[in-house]
Amino acid sequence: MIMSGRDKIEEPEHLAACLLHFKEMNLDGLVVVGGDDSNTNAAVLAEYLSAQGSKTRIIGVPKTIDGDMKNGQIEASFGFDTAAKTYSELIGNICRDAQSAVKYWHFIRLMGRAASHVALECALQTQPNICLVSEEIQAKGTTLDEIVDGIVDVIVRRAEDGKNYGILLVPEGLPEFISDIKTLIEELSAILGREEKYIMSLGNHAERFQYVSGLLTPASSRVYSSLPVDIQEVLLQRDKHGNVPLSQVETERLLIDLVSDKIRLLKAHGKAKKVKFSPLGHFFGYEGRCAYPSNFDADYCYSLGYAAAVLIRAALTGYTVNVQHLIESSDEWTAGGTPVTMMLNMEMRKGRLTPVIKKALVDLEGAPFRYFAAHRDEWAISDAYLFPGPIQYYGPTAVCDAPTKTLALEKGAGKCCRGK
Amino acid sequence: MIMSGRDKIEEPEHLAACLLHFKEMNLDGLVVVGGDDSNTNAAVLAEYLSAQGSKTRIIGVPKTIDGDMKNGQIEASFGFDTAAKTYSELIGNICRDAQSAVKYWHFIRLMGRAASHVALECALQTQPNICLVSEEIQAKGTTLDEIVDGIVDVIVRRAEDGKNYGILLVPEGLPEFISDIKTLIEELSAILGREEKYIMSLGNHAERFQYVSGLLTPASSRVYSSLPVDIQEVLLQRDKHGNVPLSQVETERLLIDLVSDKIRLLKAHGKAKKVKFSPLGHFFGYEGRCAYPSNFDADYCYSLGYAAAVLIRAALTGYTVNVQHLIESSDEWTAGGTPVTMMLNMEMRKGRLTPVIKKALVDLEGAPFRYFAAHRDEWAISDAYLFPGPIQYYGPTAVCDAPTKTLALEKGAGKCCRGK
């Protein structure tokens, strides 16, 4: 009996309804499959049910393609391996096409929510010319203009090397991590909070743009006016939670637009003469979320499910299953449970302090990022592309059963990353 | 020694240069790898070299992912199998995601030039809710408005069945096959031929739109004004050959735009109440062109290359290699050569009658289309999706070595298409 939903179990009436229905169903255990929010929910529900004397045990398993539910106990979330390998298949194919057609720059945006784990893993698997890592951009306070300059620099240097083609990866979460975009969004939110009704009553974008620009600080006004019109409009929208619908920002198109402008400017000044910039944008997301699971994910899910049942039979509740030693052969894996409370932090959510499992962002001191950072200058100019090909199920272990590069590097098996 | 290029060998000086260089290289044979144009070129070059007493033999092999080089002698072009299977992997994944998320309509445009072979093959492999076939739309004289109505009809019927999600495939060549778009483009070309300079001197799109609309027939003016602004602009551009850059028309976005409008209109009239239309657009092209070859394509290319060498050793020239019985196990394949001249038709190219190999479009009387047409009504409403998964190299023959559904149906092995 597997069902799917995006509803949260948070309010007292939700909890009471669970208690009632579980009793009616005479339910021994419930396995909650999900990421940080779902596992947090599992803990809240487990605590409530215990206090009410319910026999129903709640066990969570870590699931998200974004790879952002991991910590000292949980080595990985399932789905990340399959999604990253599916995207890497496609990126590798495009790398080869770029090298064969020798005329396109491919800007590829990758799903993965806030964290850059997916983009970083794909970079380790395919060795593209550029991969932006949101966490690094935030840590350094890099501005949008500086990001564009960095991209243009690689494009110009490759053109001078006779290579008017390349591959750039960008994580979908990027915009919120860019310092001046973040400031701009905060200023826009404050302005919209005060005057949204008036602004939206203005007849067209030119009027909205003019009015809003006048209220922004000079720095933000300059950033706002540098953006393409469709993105200026998106930034004036708010979803039902009051957030900018940033997933509607097609960052690959934004970067293509800004990079094109910058190259035009350079050419007008007699520079970048060898550059012939023909960009193509891509977004890979949905095609990696429901793929057939890789052997790794299939083995991992089998283990998670088995362990969840064992924990329930042992009358444990409020645990997330952990399966460890994942870079070893699956017969060396060990399974256990981690109390969800061990993983909780207090964060502000909707104005109140709430216990949540912290989302894991890319650790700039971690081995995956350090490996990437140590090699990216070489990858930028040389064509060090790797072509992982499609996920295989039947062949040699080295082809079919390898864990992600991220996991291998994090757990010390760094040798698995081949050079060119 | 493999090289790639898009240059044609057409003019007397090109031919003379070939003669000279082949002599310098003491070349026994040249294998031309390509589609209709390249193989036509091979024949022209072969004839010229023979007449000049050159010993260099020219042999062509059929290569194109578009699948449009096939005829009584040539069963398939290599690349089609791999590309269609790669796209079908992704489409299948998206079908499953659609069925799981139950909230998105995915409009997927597929590479393949003018012909709809790729889209049709992907439809046979994945059984989506809708697949547009350009050749049928042309044969029936279907208008853009009628296409949109047909799509909306399926969306409404699925919504009434509780399914506000679905999959639509559209071949990239579609726009030229829609009768009123074709008429519009012809009228625009005539207008631009007379007044391009003046039109382009107008300050903004609104002025260009107003001026051009006044010169169109009422029917075309109505179609033109129904298009999104960015596509109106694309249709005013001409490439260096004087053609509209139709590949810049993101047909999936055009259809999303027009379908959204129509649904809004229906709702304003109190209809389509159950429809909640959340569309997502995709384009699959580059990621299928340079994939690792499927076992079928690898075997096929090995056979083509071997046969090309044998033909050259037999001192034959101006032939395209044919390998037949491709739906049988590869040890039953037979290899031979077809004189390119047997495949030539005279067509107008750049104002002069030129011998060319006719591009094969989807045959509406052929088994692949008939199979599709017989099942599409069922696929539209029921979720008959198939999930082919990634190309496999090591597993059972049924999984790894199957030819395309198109080839199987064309050669009479229709049983290979499974139902739901």
Describe this structure in words.
Two copies of one chain form a homodimer. Chain A has 420 residues and is of the alpha/beta class. Chain A has two domains: 12-79 and 293-357, Rossmann fold (3-Layer(aba) Sandwich), CATH 3.40.50.450; 82-289, Rossmann fold. In chain A, 48% of the residues lie in helices and 13% in strands. Chain A has 16 helices and ten strands. In chain A, the strands form three sheets. A four-stranded mixed beta sheet of chain A has the order 1-2-7-8, sandwiched between helices. A four-stranded parallel beta sheet of chain A has the order 4-5-3-6, with helices on both faces. In chain A, helix 8 (205-215) packs antiparallel against helix 9. The longest helix of chain A is centred in the middle third of the chain and has 23 residues, at 179-201. The A-B interface holds A 4, 86, 89-90, 93-94, 96-97, 100, 104, 106, 280, 282, 286-292, 387, 389-396, 399 and B 4, 86, 89-90, 93-94, 96-97, 100, 104, 106, 280, 282, 286-292, 387, 389-396, 399.
Mean pLDDT of chain A: 94
The biggest beta sheet of chain A reads: 4 strands, mixed
- Which CATH architecture of the largest domain in chain A? 3-Layer(aba) Sandwich
Note the quaternary state here.
homodimer
Strand element count of chain A: 10
Please indicate the percent range of residues of chain A in DSSP E strands (runs of 2 or more). 5-15%
Shape of chain A: flat
Rg of chain A from C-alpha positions?
24 Å
Order of secondary-structure elements of chain A: HEHEHEHEHHEHHHHHEHHEEEEHHH
CA distance, first residue to last residue of chain A: 47 Å
Q: Which protein chains are joined by the largest interface, and how many residues does each one contribute?
A: A-B, 30 and 30 residues
Structural class of chain A: alpha/beta
Domain count of chain A: 2
Count the DSSP helices of chain A.
Answer: 16
Please mark out the parts of chain A with pLDDT under 50 across 5 or more consecutive residues, or reply none. Answer: 415-420
Biggest sheet of chain A: strands side by side, in what order? Answer: 1-2-7-8
- In CATH, what is the class of the largest domain in chain A? Alpha Beta
